[in-house]
Amino acid sequence: MTHSRSLRRQLLLWLLLPQLVLWLVGGALTYRMALNYAEKGLDQSLSQSVRSLARQIKPMGSGLLVDFPKAAQAIIEEDPVDRVSYMVSSPPGKFLIGNQEIAEPPPTHAPGTLVFYRMEIDGKPMRAVALDVAYGEEKHPQLLRVQLAKSYIARERIAEELIGDLLAPLLLLGVALSVLVYAGIKRGMAPLTKLEKQLKERSVADLTPLEFTTAPTEVHTLVDAINRLLAAVRRSVSQEKRFINDAAHQLRTPLAGLINQTELALGESDAALIKARLHKVHAGAQRSAHLVNQLLALARSGSEAPMAQVDLAQLAQDVARELSPRAVAMKVDLGYEGHQHAWMQGSATLLREAVTNLIDNALRYGVSREAGNEPTVTVSVHQHAAHVVLAVEDNGPGLSDAQREHVFERFWRGSDLPGGCGLGLAIVQEIARRHAGEARVTPVAPQGLRVSLHF
């Protein structure tokens, strides 16, 4: 089971989904950058604080004077959530004052250099800084370490405020962009909606071309494709109507004749008269059958047929061989001359129909029984580069100039001989045009007719 998909929905999905993904990725990257900048601000604050604290510790003889008032110490340790801890040790690692829970910094650093590192106090992550200060006499140098640690709460609060200030406008811009994308898709789909409305409002019988003046190139291409399809359907419907009209018109007379002959035969009591009537019925039935076959061939010649590489020379020779028994029975010299192979792009079925009709016409109407004139029908195929010519030539009575002008018209007959219906050469011309070719009729000296197909 197939599910219909809305083009508008797919466009919205493919345009808005990447936008949402990019917005989320951008938000995560922005949050990470905000944390980094907030951490830099935290490091700067710790740097200033640890240097200030180091200045409050002064060497006195062999000892140290810690000028760090109780009030300042209380302020530093006052906030239990965003706490600040400090520790003074001399030599480094030997606790003097502060919070002993502060971890030691990485071992490799020089005096006077700030060292930042991460640590935990009571399971809470902290940002710490250590500063080693040299003091004492030249002969008895001493080293003092001041450490300061602060929780990441302030950093996270700053990052959250920063991300809120940044993402809120981005979210509004995303919503505005989504609205603009939807409006743009709706406007872009308007020509398709208009086209859909035109097609829905049309009746089934309306096959006139669609008209579109203001629309994008892609919609014009679609409209052109639909118009080509409508033109093909229009041609097909026209051919079907013409076929029905032709069949109804041409079959009416022979069928009426058959009914008339059968009614007369039913009223006859003489066996000889009944037999004569039956002969007429049989002849009429044969003519009707031939007419139906020709009408069907005419309908096939105008329909779509698959094209492939066809050896027209071999096809013509095959058809001539198939009809040679009939020519022998009629004492007609049917032969082939020309190239043994001639390849072209075409429908083997339709081309065989055309060659059969040409030879059949020549055997029916191109046979002359004048004294000293042996009836001949010659089939030939010649190829010159991309140009292929198939011809059927006879030495019969031929046609006058006036007659040759009407020879390819439907139901036109140039002879009163029985059996024909005036469709053979019309079918040939239709098949030639289906192959982007043309059928031509030319007289033959001293007498005869040549019908050629030029591809």
From TrEMBL:
It comes from the Bacteria. Keywords: Kinase, Membrane, Phosphoprotein, Transferase, Transmembrane, Transmembrane helix, Two-component regulatory system. The keyword Membrane applies. Pfam families: 2CSK_N (PF08521), HATPase_c (PF02518), HisKA (PF00512). Residues 186-238 form the HAMP domain. It is an enzyme of class 2 (transferase). It catalyses: ATP + protein L-histidine = ADP + protein N-phospho-L-histidine. One of its GO terms (molecular function) is phosphorelay sensor kinase activity. SMART domains: HATPase_c, HisKA. Its main location: membrane. Its EC number is 2.7.13.3. One of its GO terms (cellular component) is plasma membrane. SUPFAM superfamilies: ATPase domain of HSP90 chaperone/DNA topoisomerase II/histidine kinase (SSF55874), Homodimeric domain of signal transducing histidine kinase (SSF47384). CDD domains: HATPase, HisKA. InterPro entries: 2CSK_N, HAMP_dom, HATPase_C_sf, HATPase_dom, His_kinase_dom, HisK_dim/P_dom, HisK_dim/P_sf, Sig_transdc_His_kin-like_C. Residues 246-455 form the Histidine kinase domain. It is found in: Membrane. PANTHER family: SENSOR HISTIDINE KINASE YKOH (PTHR45436), SENSOR PROTEIN QSEC (PTHR45436:SF1). This is histidine kinase.
